[in-house]
Amino acid sequence: MFFAWGVLVPVGIVFARYGRKNPYWFHIHRGIQSLALTLFIIGLILALTMPVYHRDKEHRHAKIGLALFIIIVLQFVAAVFRPDKKHHKRRTIWYYLHFTFGFLLIVLSWINIAFGQKLYGSEEPTRSLYFTYIALWILIFFILEIIKQIKNRKYKNQVQEQENDTKIDESVELVNK
């Protein structure tokens, strides 16, 4: 489960959110997330077939795991039925739902991995290393988001300058007529 949620899902998110200059970003994102879903389902089947003394359906790890399963199935179904870009309003709504569910999935999964470590008796150094790893991912996302926002701001400023230059050129032409 750690590999699916702790490695693949964050990498897939990075490609979707920050890797759009790569012409294959969507295929990479979809492939990585599909692999994560497959590993998650395999892990879920293994968890459900464990001897009873290894499972505790009342533990929050199991409850969050069930919530993750429901949300990821909804996310997958939504991805299959994603509206075309020509349906702009529905596509915008879909995008925000997809983004929100994706964010919820990553946060819940990271929390659930920590609960799973505690439930199955991981030693403190392992848990500390995991929290350091998650902190590193959060830092990576934070830095990438800052870079993205700076680039977006520069692009918007360039577009604004071009529009202003066009308006000035049109005004000069009118005056010269």
Explain what this protein looks like in three dimensions:
The protein has 177 residues and is an all-alpha fold. 83% of the residues lie in helices and 0% in strands. It is built from 5 helices and no strands. Helix 1 packs antiparallel against helix 4 and helix 4 (88-119) packs antiparallel against helix 5 (124-176). The radius of gyration is 22 Å and the shape is elongated. The model has no long low-confidence stretch (mean pLDDT 85).
Spans of at least 5 consecutive residues with low confidence: none
User: What radius of gyration results from the CA coordinates?
Assistant: 22 Å
The number of helical segments is 5
Largest sheet: none
Mean pLDDT: 85
Number of strands: 0
Helix-strand pattern, N to C?
A: HHHHH
Q: Could you provide a short overview of the structure?
A:
This protein has 5 helices and no strands. The protein is elongated and about 90 Å long.
Itemize the secondary structure elements and their pairings:
Blueprint: H1 2-18, H2 25-48, H3 60-80, H4 88-119, H5 124-176
Task: Give a quick set of tags describing it.
single chain, 177 residues, elongated, mainly alpha
